[in-house]
Amino acid sequence: MDLEQKLEIGLFTLIMFVLGLTFFSDDEVTEEIQKPIVTDEEFDAHPLYAWKTTHDKWDGSEGDIVKIRYRVKSNNTKLWVIDSNFTIVHEQSVKRDTKQDGSPRDFTWVWKLYKTERTEYIPPGTYTIIVGGMYKPTSLHGKLTYTIDL
């Protein structure tokens, strides 16, 4: 075997190895989404935070969601989400109350970003989450807010 034949066989073997790894690899590249680490002291100082993640939809596919953890300090509390134009894009469907003795309660709410029977598709952008009362917020003044980029 001369040098050209050895190079040709080596190059052919290398190409086949790369193609085999490309087409027969079972490893799926996934983006790992983790819940942010927020200490109790940080949550007590600002009792509202959110993170984007995914969950399994009813058809088995994955859908984008935002999980919102917040603290209810007064009765008839609900979440509102507005876009950069102060248009309401999501309103929590239930109101939350404090405990019977009046002490605060912590909740986690799932905001679906994909279209369902009850929700619309939410395009990428900057959104503000507001912990408010029963009525549509008219300003952010005096409200507990959190801004998230999707």
Amount of helix: 10-25%
Based on DSSP secondary structure assignment, what is the total number of beta strands? 7
Strand percentage lies at 25-35%
Q: Which word captures the global form?
A: elongated
User: What is the level 1 CATH name?
Assistant: Mainly Beta
Helix/strand order, N-terminal first = HHEEEEEEE
Instruction: Find the structural class using helix and strand composition.
Output: alpha+beta
Short characterization:
This protein is of the alpha+beta class. It has helices at 3-24, 40-45, and strands spanning 48-56, 62-72, 78-82, 88-91, 105-112, 126-132, 144-149. A hairpin with a 5-residue loop joins strand 3 (78-82) and strand 4.
Notes on the protein architecture:
- With 150 residues, the protein is an alpha+beta fold.
- The chain has a single domain (40-149), classed as Immunoglobulin-like, CATH 2.60.40.
- The protein is built from two helices and seven strands.
- The chain has helices at residues 3-24, 40-45; strands at 48-56, 62-72, 78-82, 88-91, 105-112, 126-132, 144-149.
- Strands 4-3-6-7 form a four-stranded antiparallel β-sheet, with no helix packed on it. It has a three-stranded antiparallel β-sheet with strand order 1-2-5, with no helix packed on it.
- Strand 3 (78-82) and strand 4 (88-91) form a beta hairpin.
- It is elongated.
- The mean pLDDT is 87.
